[in-house]
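Exam review. A common question shows you a sequence with its structure tokens and asks you to describe the fold in words. Practice with the pair below. Do the first one on your own.
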Amino acid sequence: MPSSPMTAYNPSTRQEFQPTDPGTQVILHNPDRCTGCRQCMTACSFKNFLTYNYDLSLCRVITGPKGEFIRVHCHHCADPMCMAACPTQAIHKDPVTGVVSVDKIQCIGCKACTWACPLSIPQMQRGLKAMTKCDLCGGDPSCIKVCSAKAIQLVTRCDSRQYCGSDIHE
């Protein structure tokens, strides 16, 4: 039986990243302010695929158990499991910005990153046999620009810990 992408991972070849940089940025969502309008999803799909389509958005807004709106998005983890699971090392973390991105040329579309991600964020890009995920729009996220409720902010990882009272991005 052939080995799965998950068993093909070799820890000795893993790319190392030091997760202690307080200057790296993450998206912070405040469900108390979110109206559930999903404009962040339309902005994301248009920025990345030039069409307004919720299914193509690299973030999701879902309704929580208490009726609140919860935004599900890449946390650009300090130690990304998606990167560790990638058998071709197509996922990289920028040592300066902390952005976790997928090299679509190197990616083989095996979905090991999706299985490894606690939120199943990486998704197959339509038209390519490669995974895709949020890259913070190169540091200027479109989703934040369109959020009229100001429920989404781009903050440093250090500040996100202060706002949340815990380290949700580790």
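Now try the second one, then compare your answer with the model answer below.
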Amino acid sequence: MKNIIRPLIAFLLTLLFAYAAVSKLLSLRDFQGELYNQTFPHWLADILLYTLIPAELLTIALLSFPRSQQAGLLLSAGLLFLFTAYIALVLLRFWDRVPCSCGGILNHFSWGTHLVFNSFFLILNLTALFIQISQPVSTIPQGGSRKPRNRVGIIHSLKFFVRFLAKKRSAS
């Protein structure tokens, strides 16, 4: 069962980060505007503008291969934790104003819904990480438990997802 859960969670996280990265790339100016509308300083928005998308793409790459999946799970958990903590601070009125939420389909979420959504994925992520770490080293496959065709399946899924987002973007 653990051999099914961990790759499934990694796949779901891959889709989540693919959606996040692609939606930012398709509307880079909107993403930049949303960052500058947030309550943190503009110098931090500048850093996030140039590091967040590459970090999401790196997360996708690491999660896609069994040998790097643990590093991908760690990076994914870090990104999800930071964003979830930011959402919690927004909801706790840590700043004087509440900024608008993020772009993409998630912009229809309230901050509370966004917190639940991110917390759910963070719990999934930590579960997969726990399974990965608790698995004895001798049972972790050196070549990976996935057959090459599964990696191709992930790539095809991502291509389909990118095409879907591009069509949706051009339709609006």
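Model answer, second protein: The chain has a mean pLDDT of 82. Helices lie at 2-26, 28-37, 42-63, 69-91, 111-134, 148-171. Full marks require stating both points clearly.
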